[in-house]
Amino acid sequence: MKTAGWSTRRVAGQDDRSECAVRNCWEQWTREGTDAWKTVSGATWKTTRREDRRIVRQALVDPTVTRSTIREDVGVTIFPQTISRHLAEANLSSKRPFRALPLTLEHRQLRLQWCQARSMWNVTD
C-alpha cells in the first residue's frame, strides 16, 4: 500500500494498526528489504510452553505440591526459582505445604474441653 502511494495514516486505518507500527515496518522494509523480525537478545527459555502449562496445572491440582516435586514430574532440570516465576506469571504463589492444618480458636477450645473432660480417667475408662 505504501508503494502504491498510500499515506501512513491510510494504511494504518485499513490494516487496523497504529501509525507507529506501519511507519516502523515501512522503515525496516526500505532499510533492509525485509519485514522479518530480528531475533531477540537475552537468555533462552529452558522450558517449552507445554512444560510451562504442566507446571501450572500441577500447582492447581495439588496446592501443597513442592517445587522439587513439580521439577521431577516435568522432567526438566530447572531451578526452583523458574518454577516460582511460572507460578507467579499464572497469578499463583508457591507455598510450602502445611505440616498440620492450622486450628481455629474454636477448634482449640473444643480440643481443650475434650482433654479436660477426660483428664481424670484411668486405664479402664
Automatic annotation (TrEMBL):
Residues covered by the Transposase Tc1-like domain: 52-117
Which GO terms fall under molecular function for this chain's record?
A: DNA binding
Species this chain originates from? Trichonephila clavipes
InterPro entries listed in its UniProt record:
Transposase_Tc1-like
Name the UniProt record assigns to this protein: HTH_Tnp_Tc3_2 domain-containing protein
Recorded name of the encoding gene:
NCL1_13165
Q: Which GO terms describe its biological process?
A: DNA integration; DNA transposition
Q: Which Pfam families match?
A: HTH_Tnp_Tc3_2
